[in-house]
Design goal:
458 residues; Growth Hormone, Chain: A; 20 helices; two-stranded antiparallel sheet; 4-stranded mixed beta sheet; mainly alpha
Length: 458
């Protein structure tokens, strides 16, 4: 693909940047090609990330793990390295070739995902999950910065929303196809391979899971690069980045804090809802996978509609547009979620209600889009990395572990995991609502600053 270059030209396809330059975006077809390629990569990332949620009990049995140990494998082992590598990856994305950085990241996470299938104990599985997290930390900062640099501000939320559907498509594929793959591998009794030896069914599925990413890594070289004055500014913008953080303390704290609360709910549910359905209703793994795949895909409608609403409101002059829908819908999450986890009379009712919860939880993704359009081009990779790293650090480390700790430490009964999920949903959903509401004022100030170039505290 042709590279796009910063220039002083101005046209409907350009975005003004500080210093009088403007970023010349590819034609519309080229912009959507970029989103499509990034979407496919995100699908592969979430397949490798989410597949393990179907295998709670088999992994626990094979490796003799407790509830908390599995939660650490699912969440903290991935999330810690995802967050630790996220900020450096954002810094590198602002300075180095995005193509090579992304190729390297995809290759690392794909190899590590397959290595999960070779794990023989807690430590080796944790180490492999570290690699998955470290590799995946490259994708979202590069994707957000690339999309924000190629689309006008009034379309960024919709473009990022389309990219973000990869999380749901990937999760749905992991849960639905993964369920059938696990059932098939179970009927085979696993496999015995040269050198490796015997693999349990769950190990065989995980071993194969990294293959699609290795192919998609080559698509990194079809994505555009930003060259010219933006790259020069990026290499000397460390002070500017810290000034941005200091100027927008309240805006960043409330925005990222709200996203983090939502992530804790979402990742806690992703880790333990399969176990909830199997333990409470006795559902077989393939039925759970299909049901959760349907539930996950329902979130696509919420994500795309929220992006379209935010873009329309922003274009009409509402500079807090990206916070209005999150503030309106998040209060419904604790109510519907608590009912689904405690009072639903059957599995189909529970899955239907949880599909609605997922749809509502995904709509605040527009907040991340607002953070991108209020950030100077030379800082977007780092701001995206900060947003995603904190959000995932909180979600992946606290979400699964909080649910497990309540189940194991308070109720002392694995069958009570639904009640634990309800408690986490009510507490974190209420806190997220508060933060989205308080963030609206600082968000308006940040958006105005981005338009007029005059720093204002917020």
């Amino acid at each position: 693909m042709t590279e796009f270059v910063e220039t002083a030209a101005t046209s409907p396809a350009t975005e003004p940047v500080k210093g009088g330059a403007a970023l010349v975006a590819p034609p519309a077809a080229g912009r959507w090609f970029v989103v499509g390629m990034l979407l496919l990569m995100y699908v592969a990332a979430y397949i490798d990330r989410a597949l393990i949620a179907l295998m709670v009990d088999p992994i626990k049995a094979t490796l003799s793990l407790s509830e908390v140990q599995f939660s650490l494998i699912h969440g903290a082992a991935f999330g810690l390295f995802y967050a630790l590598f996220g900020i450096p990856m954002g810094f590198l994305a602002d300075k180095l070739s995005k193509r090579w950085l992304l190729f390297t990241g995809i290759t690392i996470w794909s190899v590590a995902a397959s290595a999960c299938g070779l794990a023989r104990n807690f430590a080796s599985l944790a180490l492999a999950r570290f690699g998955v997290g470290a590799g995946e930390a490259t994708l979202v900062p590069i994707a957000y910065a690339t999309i924000s640099g190629t689309f006008p501000k009034s379309k960024v939320a919709s473009a990022i929303a389309i990219f973000s559907t990869g999380s749901m498509i990937g999760t749905a594929l992991a849960l639905s196809l993964g369920g059938f793959m696990l059932a098939f591998a179970t009927r085979l009794g696993g496999a015995t391979l040269p050198v490796v030896g015997h693999l349990e069914p769950w190990q065989l599925v995980l071993l194969l899971s990294g293959a699609p990413g290795l192919v998609l890594s080559l698509f990194s070289f079809l994505l555009p690069e930003v060259r010219g004055e933006a790259s020069k500014r990026a290499s000397s913008s460390a002070g500017e980045f810290w000034r941005y953080l200091a100027t927008h303390k309240a805006y960043l704290f409330l925005s990222i804090g709200g996203l983090s609360c939502t992530a804790i709910m979402a990742y806690g549910a992703a880790a333990w809802t399969p176990a909830f359905l199997m333990r409470r209703y006795g559902m077989p793994v393939e039925s759970v996978g299909a049901g959760l795949g349907f539930m996950t895909l329902c979130g696509i409608g919420g994500l795309l509609s929220a992006g379209a609403i935010a873009d329309a409101l922003y274009k009409s002059g509402r500079r807090d547009a990206h916070f209005l829908t999150p503030f309106a819908v998040t209060p419904l999450v604790p109510v519907v979620g608590a009912y689904a986890y405690t009072l639903a009379s059957g599995p189909m009712i529970a899955i239907t209600l949880l599909a609605l919860v997922h749809l509502l939880q995904i709509m605040p993704n527009t907040v991340a889009s607002h953070l991108q359009i209020t950030t100077a081009p030379a800082l977007r990779g780092r701001v995206a990395a900060l947003t995603v790293s904190v959000q995932h650090m909180a979600g992946l480390t606290l979400g699964p572990t909080l649910v497990a700790a309540i189940t194991q430490g308070i109720f002392h009964d694995p069958s009570k995991v639904g009640l634990s999920l309800a408690i986490v949903t009510v507490v974190l959903g209420s806190l997220a609502t508060l933060m989205y509401g308080l963030a609206r004022g600082p968000a308006r100030l940040a958006a105005q600053q981005a338009e007029d170039g005059a720093p204002r505290p917020g």
